[in-house]
Specification:
single chain, about 150 residues, two-stranded parallel sheet, extended
């Protein structure tokens, strides 16, 4: 298993220019960079997390591009997409597929342990008393139920 063989000049220049200007990489640039890089590989995986957090028009454009440029190509491109429960239907329609879906449900104990760890990292530990800490933990764990 080898890594990337060559970073295309266009990819390098877009990233350097973006960094020099202190901007974020645009979605269209990312898609173009992926298109330039994928031909180096016999098989590729594209992972996109939190599709539901994209604006609906951006999500639709991204899914249309994934369909047009990646699911209909000769290369083996596997997609791994995450999003909230309303996303699979939109993905199915846009990509014209039926994907395997896995439901991931938040575990309250895991969320509580994570929050306790994050609170412990607070640089101002005296800013929160135990009562407030418990209210925060209880509220977030309760609100996350079923997510």
């Amino acid at each position: 298993m080898g890594g990337i063989l060559h970073v295309p000049d266009r990819v390098r220049s877009v990233l350097e220019e973006t960094e020099r200007k202190g901007k974020k990489v645009e979605t269209t640039d990312i898609i173009d960079m992926v298109k330039l890089t994928l031909p180096q590989f016999r098989r590729s995986f594209i992972c996109i997390d939190a599709l539901d957090e994209l604006q609906p028009d951006v999500r639709k454009a991204l899914l249309n591009t994934l369909y047009k440029d990646f699911t209909t190509s000769d290369r083996a491109v596997q997609l791994f997409l995450t999003g909230r429960p309303h996303i699979p239907q939109e993905v199915n329609e846009s990509l014209r597929i039926t994907q395997d879906a896995i439901d991931v449900i938040a575990n309250g104990d895991d969320i509580r342990a994570y929050l306790i760890n994050q609170i412990a990292l607070d640089t101002s530990p005296t800013a929160m008393n135990e009562s407030l800490k418990e209210v925060i933990l209880h509220t977030i764990v309760e609100k996350s139920e079923g997510m």
